[in-house]
Amino acid sequence: MSDSWPPYPNNERYPEDRRTSWPEDAAGNAPFHSEDSPYREAGVPPEPEVIRAEFATRPPQPSRARWVVPLILFVLTCLSTFAAGQGFQRPLEGLKYSICIMAVLLSHEMGHFLQALRYGAPATLPFFLPMPFSPIGTFGAVIAMDTRRLDRRALFDIGITGPLAGLIPTLVFTVVGIQQSQVVPVVRGPAFMELGEPLLFTYLTQWIKGPLPDGYTLLVGPMAFAGWVGMLITALNLIPIGQLDGGHILYALLGKRANALGMLLLLAAIAAVVIFGYWGWLLMIFLLGLLGPEHPPTANDEAPLGWGRVILGWLVLAFIIVGFTPEPFKL
Fold it and tell me: Mind listing the pLDDT tens digit for each residue in 5-24?
């Protein structure tokens, strides 16, 4: 096999239809590089340049701990709430309470999570906190998220959506649960636990059952108890201190002035515990002090909220007045 190109008859160039791979400029000339000269003189197009394709590396997969740990905590919280609802003695009632209170917590946390996705804030899945050997079986749930890149309005929306989403099943379970509960004579003893009634729970009881006769009380069922717990947890989350939901909302409403108010509220809570002997709140006070009463600034504290958000924010914070009880359990 020869390494040279044989001449074409009559010194003809390579047919025009075979030279279409040569680009032409505006004047009709085909520009070419010096290394293409032998091919051009031979009347054939140069060999096309071969570019090797490189495959992009596979993006890193999310860590298994991102969903394994939340899943384990979710299962443990289901078990602890099942036990708190006396599920090992009365399985149906324990299951009903566990499903209802987990629905409240899940709605609350998914409200935060979906808003965080909407605004592009990195957030973890909800971490449910089991609390075995307690009357309610859970300490709530938390989501870790980075809010430093959020502006004031995004912080408000993320902070307020959780309580609002959790209040929907809370009120449904409260109303339906009170309808299913019975009015019975007051019986005192170690087997009975008296609940402190938030103003909203008392009003709903009177609205559904009517004024209770003297010496009678409402024997709450598992669904009503889940609604009562939902009110308590929502009210606690709305305390306007630090990184609680109420702290997010208050900072969005007042900016850096919220930090001074948060410090005053924390000091007032400590004084109330000491003066009135509400020692059951010592753990909550300790955690609030550990996290700090101050809220970090947002990326833009001057972003406008609008009157609608301002009014909604103060109304939601006012839920503490009707949803909180300083002495939840009267043993």
Answer: 444 455 544 444 444 444 55
Mean pLDDT score of the chain, rounded to an integer? 84
Distance CA 136, CA 329 (A): 10
How long a stretch of residues is the chain? Answer: 331
CB 141 within 8 A of CB 105: yes
Distance CA 156, CA 162 (A): 11
Q: What does the angle CA 306 – CA 309 – CA 312 come to, to the nearest 5 degrees?
A: 145
HEC profile for 15-32?
A: CHHHCCCCCCCCCCCCCC
Q: Are 241 and 247 in contact (CB under 8 A)?
A: yes
In the numeric block, which tokens belong to residue 164? 């609002």
Residue in the structure block whose two tokens are 């808003």: 115
pLDDT digits (tens, 9 = 90+) for 216-268: 999 999 999 999 999 999 999 999 998 899 999 999 999 999 999 999 999 99
**Confidence class for position 190, pLDDT limits 50, 70, 90:** low
Longest dimension (CA), the chain: 124
H helices present in the chain, as ranges: 37-42, 65-84, 91-119, 152-180, 199-209, 222-237, 245-254, 257-276, 282-291, 307-317, 319-323
Task: Give the amino acid at 145.
Answer: M
3-state secondary structure at position 279: helix
How many other CB atoms are there within 10 angstroms of residue 184's CB atom? 10
CA 143-145-151 angle, to 5 degrees, is: 130
Distances (CA, A) of 90 to 82, 93, 96: 10, 6, 10
Instruction: Report the C-alpha gap between 78 and 74 in whole angstroms.
Output: 6
The DSSP letter of residue 211 is S
Task: For residue 228, give the amino acid letter.
Answer: W
The three-state secondary structure class of 326 is: coil
According to DSSP, the residues that pair with 141 across neighbouring strands are 128
3-state secondary structure of 212: coil
